[in-house]
Design brief:
Length: 448
Amino acid sequence: DAGKYEEAISAFEALGEYSDSAEQIALCGYGIAEELMNSGKYDEAISAFDALNGYGDSGDMILECRYKAAEELMNSGDFDGAISAFEALGGYSDSAERVLEYKYNRAAFLMDSGKYGEAIPAFEELDSYRDSRDIINSYFDGLTDYDALPLSLYNYARRYCMENPAADGELFVKLGLHNIISAGSKHTVGIRSDGTVTATGKSADGECDVYGWSHIVSVSAGFTHTVGIKSDGTVVATGDNKYGECDVSGWTDIVSVSAGGWGHTVGLRSDGTVVATGKNDYGQCDVSDWTDIVAVSAGWTHTVGLRADGTVVCAGSNDYGETELSDWTDIVDISADCDHTVGLRADGTVSAAGKNGYGELDVSGWTDIVSISVGYWHTVGLRADGTVAVTGWNEYGQCEVTDWTDMLCATTGTDHSVGVKKDGTVKTAGYNFYRQCDTYGWVLKTFE
């Protein structure tokens, strides 16, 4: 009763089994543990309560000690430690709510510290908790220096743009979401301002059957199939499905998609992982273990992915060195087609690898490039001033784009090139046997 618990325990132990001595020993041990807890010695208190082997409410007191220890971590500014401690408590008391609260506080701290590359993913993880989504949107709403946007935030920015069609067009272009037009082997598809899609060219396999599509934010045309991303992150496809290249109906949370030239399709999820379907005889669909990816491009028999750190990962054929890219660094955009791969560096210069039968790799002198696209045997690059650079095979005039000006984007098919001007009108050059260049009268989505 005097609170001298250790002396009392010794005295009761000396009594052996007399009366309720064992009960009194446990009661004294409980008192010692309680004193430790009240003095903030939580680790010692937990050990003391644990030694009581379930006496009274010792189990609950252990949880309470852990709860208070987690609070102490939070008060000291150790957000990560506090979050881990509260998560370990499971459903005890309001631990789950405290986890969310502390994750929010940590994200806010990172945002206030200017560590946006860490803050935005932290708020994204919280999703609809409090005003997390509003904070993410406000960040991208207020973003003006798009060149300073880290690669690690590209997928979050893509999601923002998909959910906010009125976002700044320059940001769409920076993120590769300017895929409002795409040239396939013998067809061309484009997105109108209302999110519907138009197409022209060969449609023997239904690759131009896009007239029922709506809410489309990005398109990609392959050899004989076409895919599109809807604003909700799902994917639609039409055309030849011999190899399962159109089996994308179950894909969700997709922020970028690429239709390959020979029967495969690749999709990038907002979490940086990658999905693929279709022909895989060269391993071009072996991308399931890729992580931290911010851009993908499907060639004919190979696939490339851009990591958030500016390096490149590859899968598939390497007959001409098209996947020998392990030494590429500081890359911000990639494009793959038949036997070559091109990468855009952060400084606006360009790297290339693979077959160079027609000069399609002769890009070493290019500067001030903001986006790139490779065709079967030719390569184009859009300059910051809206003009276009080109190199490679020109049998059908597909490289006659040097007089294009005021361009929003430029992209390549097998034997033709297409681009969209800032007013939404379309420029074309190259092979037109299947009327893949018959885009006269098209006015596509613009960002002005």
